[in-house]
Structures are given as structure tokens and as C-alpha cells.
Fold:
Amino acid sequence: MSADWDNVRSRWESIRQAVDGAYPAPGDGSSLGKGRVGLAKNPVAITGEAGAGKTVLYNALAQAIKTGDGDSTRSPDSEKHRTVFRSGSRRAQASVVVIPGQASQERELALSATMGGTASPQGIIHVVCWGHNRTWAASGRRAIEQTLRAQNPDFDEESVRAWHLRKEVEDFRDLCERITEQRAAKRLRWMLIAVTKCDLYWDRIDLARDHYIPGGAVPESEFCTLLRDLADETSIRLAVLPMSSRLIRHQFLPRLRPRLFQLDDEQLGILRSHFNSALGGLLAERGSEE
Ligand SMILES: Nc1nc2c(ncn2[C@@H]2O[C@H](COP(=O)(O)OP(=O)(O)OP(=O)(O)O)[C@@H](O)[C@H]2O)c(=O)[nH]1
Ligand SMILES: [Mg+2]
Structure:
């Protein structure tokens, strides 16, 4: 099945206009709530690179973050949640597993356990952040700095972003190959690409859109090519949405200038409620409603 990229793009655009004040947000008060322990319905996996924003995205969807809460820390293990998703009057149960981003035995085990056999998710939220990943350990930050300095002594924020984007696309390639070649995730029906941390690059949001949605930039990004192939080779429903889970400044590397957030709480709420309602729509498809 090939996706209608014009449609994907126009959905993105309507959210951008809502954040910029042209249209109101869907006021249906969607949210994830704590679910009863019961049959695993609607298994959803949250995937993506280390420091991309998976844990914080889950918490934002579950409305577990309040302004002023402490920051997130690296997740060494999978995080499993059973939740009830509320979108207007609709309720859908979901069991969500957040796969840790850093390459490790735990990550590999979690990925193969989640993607294989009967445990296959019906939906994947794949989290990307246009190169604004958090590198948790000081040793990791030093390693990036050394690599970049060797390539160019005047490396800057853009070089750090490019470094992360390269890793991000390889991570996505791996996910796509598991789905198309290894025939993992047999029950997979949809994938939502969450382009998160938009608050850090709202001034260049169109460039981010073209990096992640096919049909915009020429030549196309490698990410777009992978997404296009996924749409052509499978019947998975694909969506690409801008998102922001919390407002917090970003440090690329210790000696570089930090990037400040460019949105306010109200705009964050608009992004969140559009994301929630799209997710609610995907979860509610085909008999998964309570
Ligand atoms: N500005 C901004 N920062 C964010 C956003 N989402 C996450 N962050 C920050 O990015 C860092 C990483 O977020 P996490 O959600 O912990 O990352 P993760 O993908 O779970 O990372 P691993 O646990 O290593 O796999 C944290 O410092 C967050 O506060 C966002 O929407 N905007
Ligand atoms: Mg995490």
C-alpha cells in the first residue's frame, strides 16, 4: 500500500497553524489514564534512539508531568504500562512498552521480545527529535566531541545535530528491516512517527517536516526513503506528527550554546491534544474500543 503523503503533510500543516494561532485545538481532553490489569489489549511499543524523548513523551501522554517536575533520566530497562486511553467519550485500553534507546543486551532482548511472535505490537510510536537527542553520560558527550573535532575543529550545534541524525536514520533502518525483511511485528497495523521536541526548533519546523515526510525536499532525506519503502512494502497505516512533551532547554555539548525552547504552555497543549486525538483514532480502529 502506498501512503498518501499529501494527506500526511496537510495534517502536519493544520497542527502547525493551530500552534501558530490560526485554528483552535480539538477540545476533547484526550488522555491516557491508569488501566485495570487484565487482558493485554492494543499492545503499543514506543521506540527510538537514546535521549530522543520516549519516556517523557509517554509521561506527557499519561499527563504525568507537571510544570516544575524534575528532569528525566536514562532508562536502562523497558518501561511497561497498562493504560486506558480516553479520547472524548471513547475509551480504549492499551498496554504500552517503552524500549530503552541505548544499545544494550536489554534493548535487544526487549526489541526481539516485543516485536516477535504473539507479543507483536499493533502499533508503534517511533520517537525522533531532529537531532536534539540528550546524551546521558559525560563519557558519551566527550566521545561525540572528539569525533566531531577530528572532522572539523570548528564544529558547532549543527554538527552535533547531524551526528545524531545519522544515528537516528540507522536506528530507523534497523526497525524497518525488522518489520519488512525479518517479518517481525506480524500484528502491526500502524506506526506513528512522533517528531518530538518541536519546541526546540519551531523556527525551522518546515525543514523538520521535510526531513520526516516524503514529497517535500529534493533530494529526499534517507529517512523519507525508508518511510516510503515501508509504505510501499507493507499495509501499515503511517502518520507523522509534530510533538513536544515538555519545555526544557537543550545542551548540545558542554561548550556549545544551549538551545532555548520557543513555545509556551498553551502551544504545548495544542500539540499534545492533536497528538492525543490522532493516537486515539489509531487505537480505536477495528474493534479495540471498550
Ligand atoms: N525541550 C524538550 N526537551 C525534551 C522533550 N522531550 C524530552 N525532552 C528532554 O530530552 C531528554 C531525554 O528524554 P527521555 O524521554 O528521558 O529520553 P528517552 O528516549 O526515554 O531516552 P532513553 O531512556 O535513553 O531511551 C530529557 O532531558 C528530557 O527532558 C521535549 O518535547 N522538549
Ligand atoms: Mg527513557
Remarks:
- The mean pLDDT is 88.
- The beta strands are 31-34, 43-48, 79-87, 90-98, 123-128, 190-195, 237-242.
